[in-house]
């Protein structure tokens, strides 16, 4: 009997696909962490604007806390009853704030001067010359 056959006997065959997917996901996380750790943090932050720096910090701390959540679950500890849950909620709150700031930054800005000129020119304003010609032409039409 090979080592794989022994491993298959240790857990139900129904969860084999789940475990395979989990192992693949762990490999992806490991690759991402290696990529992220290959560049020094200070070097990375120098290339980013403050909003991007905040996003990077929030994603990093959220990832770390999420991994701790998974660790607790694998140890048989209910993470919903652990302070890590409140920490994740706090981080999510800050992520939403950063998203609002980014959305405001993307939103188009109103040029009040241009808008007032546009409205002013679009509206018809009677002036003395137009008033006089419209009255005389109206009188002339009545006589005929």
From TrEMBL:
<dbReference type="GO" id="GO:0010468">
    <property type="term" value="P:regulation of gene expression"/>
</dbReference>
<comment type="function">
    <text>Plays a role in the recruitment of the exosome to pre-rRNA to mediate the 3'-5' end processing of the 5.8S rRNA.</text>
</comment>
<dbReference type="GO" id="GO:0000460">
    <property type="term" value="P:maturation of 5.8S rRNA"/>
</dbReference>
<keyword id="KW-0539">Nucleus</keyword>
<comment type="similarity">
    <text>Belongs to the C1D family.</text>
</comment>
<protein>
    <recommendedName>
        <fullName>Nuclear nucleic acid-binding protein C1D</fullName>
    </recommendedName>
</protein>
<dbReference type="GO" id="GO:0005730">
    <property type="term" value="C:nucleolus"/>
</dbReference>
<dbReference type="InterPro" id="IPR011082">
    <property type="entry name" value="Exosome-assoc_fac/DNA_repair"/>
</dbReference>
<comment type="subunit">
    <text>Monomer and homodimer.</text>
</comment>
<keyword id="KW-0694">RNA-binding</keyword>
<dbReference type="GO" id="GO:0000178">
    <property type="term" value="C:exosome (RNase complex)"/>
</dbReference>
<dbReference type="GO" id="GO:0003723">
    <property type="term" value="F:RNA binding"/>
</dbReference>
<keyword id="KW-0238">DNA-binding</keyword>
<keyword id="KW-0963">Cytoplasm</keyword>
<dbReference type="Pfam" id="PF04000">
    <property type="entry name" value="Sas10_Utp3"/>
</dbReference>
<dbReference type="InterPro" id="IPR007146">
    <property type="entry name" value="Sas10/Utp3/C1D"/>
</dbReference>
<feature type="region of interest" description="Disordered">
    <location>
        <begin position="121"/>
        <end position="144"/>
    </location>
</feature>
<keyword id="KW-0698">rRNA processing</keyword>
<dbReference type="GO" id="GO:0005737">
    <property type="term" value="C:cytoplasm"/>
</dbReference>
<dbReference type="GO" id="GO:0003677">
    <property type="term" value="F:DNA binding"/>
</dbReference>
């Amino acid at each position: 009997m090979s080592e794989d056959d022994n491993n298959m006997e240790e857990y139900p065959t129904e969860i084999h696909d789940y475990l395979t997917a989990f192992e693949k996901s762990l490999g992806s996380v490991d690759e991402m962490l290696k990529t992220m750790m290959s560049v020094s943090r200070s070097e990375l932050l120098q290339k980013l604007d403050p909003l991007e720096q905040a996003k990077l910090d929030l994603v990093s701390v959220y990832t770390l806390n999420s991994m701790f959540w998974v660790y607790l679950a694998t140890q048989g500890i209910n993470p919903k009853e652990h302070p890590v849950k409140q920490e994740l909620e706090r981080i999510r709150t800050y992520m939403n704030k950063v998203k609002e700031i980014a959305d405001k930054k993307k939103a188009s800005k109103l040029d009040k001067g241009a808008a007032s000129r546009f409205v002013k020119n679009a509206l018809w304003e009677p002036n003395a010359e137009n008033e006089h010609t419209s009255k005389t032409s109206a009188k002339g039409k009545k006589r005929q």
